[in-house]
Amino acid sequence: MNILILDVYPKTPYRISKDQNGAYGTANDYGNGLISRLLKYIVKNSIDFPPLYSVHVCGELIGSGHNVVYSKELDFKNDYDLYILPSSIVCHETEIEYLKKLKNNNKIAIVIGPFATSNPKKYLENGAIVIKGEPEMFFHKFNKTPSDLQNLPKIIDNFPIYNLDDLEYPGWEVIFKNYIPKMKFLGPGPTISINASRGCPYSCFYYCVYPLQQGRKLRLKSPKRLVNEMIYFNKTLNVKNFIFRDPVFSIDRKHTLEICDQIINSGYKFNICIETHLKNIDNEMVINLKKIGVKLIYVGIESADEDVKKDANRTSETNENQIEKVKYLEKKGIKVKSMYIIGMPAETEETFKNTVEYAKKIKSSYAQFSVFTPYPGTPVYNEYKDKIIAEKYEEFTQWQLVFEHQNLSKEKILDLLNYSYKEYYTNPKWAVHFLSNKIKDLYENFSNRIFGFHRNIDL
């Protein structure tokens, strides 16, 4: 069959990612202050990669002998047997408009992804077939013909969960024909996303969207298969930059250290970005992550106020441990993006400004301040569904207030958002720290090019 993966987005002055936030998606609308606007421009021009589950679907379809095209635009000049749309909350209304066009032209469309899994109604109403759960599992060994598509049920949710090692390699070759994914914060050249595990058993499933598609059971890809995959794309597409999209990369310590050993023994040099929890980080882990090329780590800090976190059922390391662990990571040459949340239910203007001061004390290379958002499909949404003030799903960007907050208005949230980015990125101590790291990076890169080896940075 000829199949089009149609990955559509509204036109905005800020970056939209369907892959992040558990593949519900985020839209990096940091605010309207000068620093916020500058950051929006930098991020939009520095980071761009498609939802990983759609690339996995692409790989499964290629493995089954189908011809697959990936595009962000719909062109009826080419007639496809099947159209597959990756879903999201941040592009929902745009996706529905494209579904209407397909329906009016009598095209068969399948919608995939965690948002459609949890919120299928509008997609079904506009003529789509919805696959619930991990769509690549359904398309594994997909031997259907065009006539078979007519008999598919409107909702597909009963199919086996395969061992991650049994899946085909993701179809990045097809993506690269359309555009080259990038993550300039890792380095020049193409960047692809990858995962070493799926599922997350942590208690934060109450408000987190990651388990909605992957489930809460942890499933691990074998370290050997993972590294073979990285080497394959290094050889075929010249990729050395990898973003691990695991909900918590180092959740299984033994598995993570085995991955480190496999990469080190391979002799390949990669630039890697991961997201993890600080409670899974210790000095030994940091040293191993540095050895395999981890350049950037995302960690959730959320709030400096214990009462605010407790009220929102969120747990984290103590403030003292957070400061020490981030400091150690940065000292070893691994940049940290600390992520904070404004507008949790018990938040006040005072508690959030205290969090901003705490963020300045942590002094990580990057900081992200986003807005507490109860997502449809999560257990916490039931508490807020009657308080929602957003008029459409595309307002669920993670940088807008979408519900009636007991202490903060929508306008106040925006003011505090602008305040947080201005205070953090114009802080002289942060600027000195950031420039010092840049100089270290330049020296290390220079040494590597001249002498052909990686310096031993106090390991």
Keywords:
459 residues, alpha/beta, Rossmann fold, pyruvate-formate lyase- activating enzyme, 2 domains, 39% helix, globular
Explain this structure to me?
This protein is α/β, with parallel strands linked by helices and 459 residues long. The chain has 2 domains: 163 residues, Cobalamin-binding domain (Rossmann fold, 3-Layer(aba) Sandwich); 271 residues, Alpha-Beta Horseshoe (pyruvate-formate lyase- activating enzyme). The chain contains 18 helices and 18 strands. A 6-stranded parallel sheet has the order 5-1-6-7-8-9, sandwiched between helices. A 6-stranded parallel sheet has the order 11-14-15-16-17-18. Strands 2-3 form a two-stranded antiparallel ribbon. Helix 10 packs across helix 11. The longest helix is centred in the last third of the chain and has 24 residues. It is globular, with a radius of gyration of 22 Å. It starts with a strand and ends in an 8-residue tail after the last helix. The C terminus is likely disordered.
Summarize the structure.
The chain has about 450 residues and is α/β, with parallel strands linked by helices. The protein has helices spanning about 35-45, 50-65, 90-105, 115-120, 120-125, 135-140, 145-150, 170-180, 210-215, 225-235, 255-265, 285-290, 305-310, 320-330, 350-360, 380-385, 410-425, 430-450, and strands at about 1-5, 15, 25, 45-50, 65-70, 80-85, 110, 130, 155, 180-185, 190-195, 195-200, 220, 240-245, 270-275, 295-300, 335-340, 365-370.
